[in-house]
Automatic annotation (TrEMBL), chains A, B:
SUPFAM superfamilies: FAD/NAD(P)-binding domain
Principal localisation: mitochondrion
Protein name: Kynurenine 3-monooxygenase
Gene Ontology process terms (BP): 'de novo' NAD+ biosynthetic process from L-tryptophan; anthranilate metabolic process; kynurenine metabolic process; L-tryptophan catabolic process; quinolinate biosynthetic process
Record's subcellular location: Mitochondrion; Membrane
Gene Ontology MF terms: FAD binding; kynurenine 3-monooxygenase activity
Species per Swiss-Prot/TrEMBL record: Drosophila gunungcola (fruit fly)
Limits of the FAD-binding domain: 28-368
Similarity comment: family membership: Belongs to the aromatic-ring hydroxylase family. KMO subfamily.
Amino acid sequence: MRQGIISQEVNGHQESPGAAEDEGRRRRVAVVGAGLVGSLAAINFARMGNQVDLYEYREDIRQALVVQGRSINLALSQRGRKALAAVGLEEKVLATAIPMRGRMLHDVRGNTSVVLYDPNSKQCLYSVGRRQLNEVLLDACDKLPNVRCHFEHKLTSANLREGSMEFRNPNQDVIAAKADLIVGCDGAFSGVRQQLVRLPGFNYSQEYIDTGYLELCIPSKSGDFQMPANYLHIWPRNSFMMIALPNQDKSFTVTLSMPFGVFAKIRNQNDLLDFFKLNFHDALPLIGEQQLVKDFFKTRPQHLVSIKCKPYHYADKALILGDAAHAMVPYYGQGMNAGMEDVTLLTGILEKELRLDEALAQFTESRWQDAFAICDLAMYNYVEMRDLTKRWSFRIRKWLDTLLFRYFPSWIPLYNSVSFSSMPYAQCVANRKWQDQLLKRVSVTTLLAAILAGVAIFSQRFI
Amino acid sequence: MRQGIISQEVNGHQESPGAAEDEGRRRRVAVVGAGLVGSLAAINFARMGNQVDLYEYREDIRQALVVQGRSINLALSQRGRKALAAVGLEEKVLATAIPMRGRMLHDVRGNTSVVLYDPNSKQCLYSVGRRQLNEVLLDACDKLPNVRCHFEHKLTSANLREGSMEFRNPNQDVIAAKADLIVGCDGAFSGVRQQLVRLPGFNYSQEYIDTGYLELCIPSKSGDFQMPANYLHIWPRNSFMMIALPNQDKSFTVTLSMPFGVFAKIRNQNDLLDFFKLNFHDALPLIGEQQLVKDFFKTRPQHLVSIKCKPYHYADKALILGDAAHAMVPYYGQGMNAGMEDVTLLTGILEKELRLDEALAQFTESRWQDAFAICDLAMYNYVEMRDLTKRWSFRIRKWLDTLLFRYFPSWIPLYNSVSFSSMPYAQCVANRKWQDQLLKRVSVTTLLAAILAGVAIFSQRFI
């Protein structure tokens, strides 16, 4: 293997060591990771006049034959839409997205029922392809003269204090680069964060859940969807569940989430088919037995991790955004949306023209509680989604929430505040607590009144 | 700098690739870190017949002129003593240790008062020098033919799956080594744990507290201690505190713990002396003004971190013990004791002659809840120690606990169960909860009885 060190001239600014000190001048910003959050961040930094280098360890997703290792569709909601709108890309993305108006629940007998997300104002989630969305964002990067994309650049080391990084390309060349600010948008296993974790005072936790997931597929049939397209399909089975989101090519991507212990019990084709016949009776013919067996045993179930940390920055030298800062389990559909909202909030703070270290500190301070809250909510929603079989209590609450929301617009149900508003996540949680308390008080009062009325009637009869 | 790769023959066993599979045969065990837990672990692995290589990045502490970077004395209690007794070293260590029978509290006016740890059976903590204790343990390693010590070997990389490690010596030579089992006893910032953190399913958290600490010294005077020697001295000041432990050379090592914000306000000699005159009036002349100024400004306050993780092992290939597995804030004096207890428990499990992967899994399973519990207790005790100024409630509870403990030996107060017994830490906590509930119930019942009696008397008078 050829090995060499290539010193990369970063947008022609490498010769200006004093750049960071000159607050009036724009900076050399290195964004590590050209996924959804990274490419959106690059656009925003560039629009503010910075010189942006965008590094990605994979090949250009626009040229990739197969996009591996990540779920291929995602639920875009309010926070993601707002971030896209801010850079003029919302309409372009929604044009090819598939609206999902509610959950379609599949019971063990194959019966389905629908729970709309928002029966009042008909707001919905949008199923978008990761690849399409990433392409739109990268195309927008290409149109900006001050963004330079570097694909197949894998970060191998970084010195945040000095703003220096080393990458390797597929030839194993070592590529050295420098920047005034390093922005890690490099996902749950972020290399930039790995440097932050070593700094004293950096709080960090990674928590794996005992559940693994596998992706399967319900292909299109005769050029059409095999199930109603405008829903997020759920097969809740208490300790495990399956969901399906529609794709543009009229297939569905199916995600099976189960404890590793349950996965381990399915050892061969017979186990698998028996398991599906028992639990996902209606989905089995749609997936197809042969394809199911092939896809199920092709890869091992993947782990799911929830990551919280604080702070998100180091002085005026480094910053992490998106999954690098707050990876969450995927059960609230907020991972991408929260990451994109990071960019919206950061841009808002940077536009105040504070000193950069102060601006980054303000970002951490204003963001960490909300990031922790959505990580916790995602974990909580995992239990709720699996348990939708106990759905009468869920439906009664849903009905009550919808009713109250209609007549008292300030009664925003939790799911709506998270998915269809930009209310800070922590406030969504506080809001829900307040609603729970009120409902509890009302029901206790009602119960007491009923008892008192009963006693009154009883006394009148017998005294 | 000279660089080369030296392949290290590990106790002549490197040529036996099948060693790990042969359960009857003893293993090549690499213990990384020759501190208190590492050297104790090496002794135990060697006594079970394994070939042990003990690697330490510092020089041999027995030859070191100055031991840097770690607190120089420690409070040895029951769990540490038990672990030392198991390898026949307890008496040797206690011979030079200084018993501490209780806390001596210093108030702001300089008045002192004593709270004994165990007024009933006079159990006490022992102040031991880190260096002396480490020397005793390393000397014991030297006496075992199957332990080989490698000082100035800094772990730079490890492949746990393959059992391979790379070290660097001060000449920057790369030294390659192999082992069947790698045991990380390399402290809170463990390099072995760094490998575990990357494995899917490894839960990890590091939490820094907002408090920093600095070490100061009360030297001996005319060949004697300047304060009563047989106590752990505490200056509790609510949001901060100072403690002092006696050393063999008749000095005291003083540890000042304060929020970083308070440290930051002390910018010069005048600030410092004013601060000490106000808060540690009686300690100031003992430390000496000049020495205080010198020591205080010599180093920056150190961070304190609490680390929890799970599991502690990887298959039959790697294991972490002590601070590497559960670093805690130092306020329960259990860091070293818990680490040594790890070794006791592990040895007990290994002696059952299970398959190694099963034995290590059993160690994780039987240890993590207790490790989490002592990390939490240490955090909780930090608040208790600082707040001892509110000491009437503390003393009343202490008095009640002592009384109950005397007449009902099963009523073991929390501090005693942690420091003077081998009760699993989690059980110590459960025990305390049960005691709290009982006391609460008794006091509510007493209060009710008093009210009823009052009502009865009142009725008799007025009806």
